[in-house]
């Protein structure tokens, strides 16, 4: 089923009227229905009046203005509903209604949407803001015959999983027959390739002879099954497999991904990978020509404001809040809920306290980065600590040459090339921010406020572990040689 191909005005009116009854407590009047139908068909008010037996002045001046105001509150989602936009808005409303009312039926214990089998649990999307450009861009990439895989990279809480879930939702509402099955595998419980393969076999309810099969035999069995159906495979949270210090494991993961991509090339399937870490830090085999990466940034200002309004926050200070938290949806949600609770939703009052609040998802990501052996080496930690202290003192970005000087002061044996490589890794992981105003200006580095707060507070004692207090009284500095 395709909503955009099958939706007619009567179906749209039925969905719309349900919304109006729920929000306003009344049904649409005959005159309002005439205006809505006329707007759907692109008619002017004279044509509407002629069709419905009403006076055009009455429809245009007495019915339409309060109708558009009412619909703006009911279905506008922060956007003013107007005659020329109504059809597009109703299409979106119908798509949302279609997804919410999808009947999941059990067919051999498999979920079914239209003719598409669903394996795994897609994230539930209660509210979704913005990302229209990203979704359209990803749709073009997926439908292109040139690619069969893509990876979405970004910090914790930035909305990678929600973005992919919304993308899948829109793909299904526009053309539910495009794939025979959607496979969504969350990888957070997997610590090895064998656990991932076993998890996929279990998710797909495949029957394998016994538990004594070798890993290679299991992979062969899985790939053979994947060739049978056209599928969209989502591997959500690949960073869980990161074992930086285990070269053999990284090669193993890379070969498996290449095998999955090879299956997709043969069958016109598609893989989407989400990860907090760039793929090259998880796998050793070069997949850059086969799996291209997109870095996911925070919400834009309009989407951020829509989110904050739903949380009860208003005013110009909301723009400053979005900027301070870099449009990170999970961080904005966490800080908005606290502002509403402790400051009655007054963002300006919150800023008077000059504090930075941290959400759970980003903190969990930082805990993982600092706890997992090999993910952050001593030089990378030192750079982050150096930036946290200096930015707090100087309230400005730190030029590249100062970072090099600072690291060499801490450890004379550190080379400039090592500092550059460390900075590049931190930038790829979105742990530091980079600014360069012009080609002639020196590159400068900064930390987003939440990351700076985490480092200076060090809530679990992971940041300054094996570091001692420096002479200026701050926690950081010389590494204790063991």
TrEMBL record:
<feature type="domain" description="Novel STAND NTPase 1">
    <location>
        <begin position="126"/>
        <end position="273"/>
    </location>
</feature>
<dbReference type="Pfam" id="PF20703">
    <property type="entry name" value="nSTAND1"/>
</dbReference>
<dbReference type="InterPro" id="IPR027417">
    <property type="entry name" value="P-loop_NTPase"/>
</dbReference>
<keyword id="KW-0067">ATP-binding</keyword>
<dbReference type="GO" id="GO:0005524">
    <property type="term" value="F:ATP binding"/>
</dbReference>
<dbReference type="InterPro" id="IPR058651">
    <property type="entry name" value="HTH_VMAP-M9"/>
</dbReference>
<keyword id="KW-0547">Nucleotide-binding</keyword>
<dbReference type="Pfam" id="PF26355">
    <property type="entry name" value="HTH_VMAP-M9"/>
</dbReference>
<protein>
    <submittedName>
        <fullName>ATP-binding protein</fullName>
    </submittedName>
</protein>
<dbReference type="InterPro" id="IPR049052">
    <property type="entry name" value="nSTAND1"/>
</dbReference>
<feature type="domain" description="vWA-MoxR associated protein N-terminal HTH">
    <location>
        <begin position="8"/>
        <end position="90"/>
    </location>
</feature>
């Amino acid at each position: 089923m395709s909503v955009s191909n099958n939706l007619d005005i009567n179906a749209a009116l039925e969905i719309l009227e349900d919304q109006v009854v729920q929000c306003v407590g009344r049904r649409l009047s005959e005159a309002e229905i005439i205006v809505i139908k006329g707007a759907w068909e692109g008619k002017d008010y004279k044509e509407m009046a002629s069709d419905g037996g009403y006076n055009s002045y009455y429809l245009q001046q007495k019915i339409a203005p309060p109708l558009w105001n009412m619909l703006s509150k009911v279905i506008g989602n922060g956007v003013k509903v107007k005659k020329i936009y109504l059809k597009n808005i109703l299409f979106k409303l119908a798509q949302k209604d279609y997804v919410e009312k999808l009947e999941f039926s059990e067919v051999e214990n498999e979920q079914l949407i239209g003719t598409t089998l669903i394996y795994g649990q897609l994230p539930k999307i209660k509210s979704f803001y913005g990302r229209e450009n990203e979704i359209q861009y990803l749709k073009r990439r997926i439908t292109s015959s040139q690619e069969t895989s893509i990876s979405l990279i970004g910090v914790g809480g930035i909305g990678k999983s929600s973005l992919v879930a919304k993308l899948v939702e829109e793909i299904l509402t526009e053309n539910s027959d495009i794939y025979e099955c959607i496979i969504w595998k969350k990888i957070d419980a997997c610590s090895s390739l064998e656990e991932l393969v076993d998890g996929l076999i279990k998710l797909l309810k495949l029957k394998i002879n016994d538990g004594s099969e070798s890993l290679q035999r299991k992979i062969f069995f899985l790939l053979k099954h994947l060739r049978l159906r056209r599928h969209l495979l989502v591997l959500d949270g690949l960073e869980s497999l990161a074992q930086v210090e285990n070269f053999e494991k990284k090669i193993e993961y890379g070969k498996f991904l290449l095998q999955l991509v090879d299956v997709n090339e043969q069958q016109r399937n598609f893989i989407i990978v989400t990860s907090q870490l760039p793929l090259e830090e998880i796998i050793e085999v070069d997949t850059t020509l086969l799996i291209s990466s997109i870095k996911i940034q925070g919400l834009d200002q309009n989407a951020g404001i829509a989110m904050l309004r739903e949380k009860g926050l208003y005013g110009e200070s909301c723009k400053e809040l979005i900027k301070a938290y870099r449009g990170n949806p999970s961080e904005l949600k966490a800080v908005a809920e606290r502002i509403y609770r402790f400051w009655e939703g007054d963002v300006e009052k919150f800023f008077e306290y000059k504090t930075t609040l941290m959400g759970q998802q980003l903190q969990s990501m930082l805990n993982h980065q600092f706890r997992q052996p090999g993910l952050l080496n001593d030089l990378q930690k030192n750079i982050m600590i150096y930036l946290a202290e200096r930015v707090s003192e100087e309230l400005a970005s730190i030029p590249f040459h100062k970072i090099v000087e600072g690291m060499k002061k801490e450890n004379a044996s550190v080379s400039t090339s090592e500092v550059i490589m460390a900075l590049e890794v931190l930038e790829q992981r979105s742990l530091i921010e980079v600014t360069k105003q012009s080609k002639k200006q020196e590159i400068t580095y900064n930390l987003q406020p939440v990351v700076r707060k985490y480092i200076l507070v060090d809530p679990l004692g992971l940041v300054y572990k094996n570091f001692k207090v420096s002479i200026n009284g701050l926690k950081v500095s010389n590494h204790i040689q063991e």
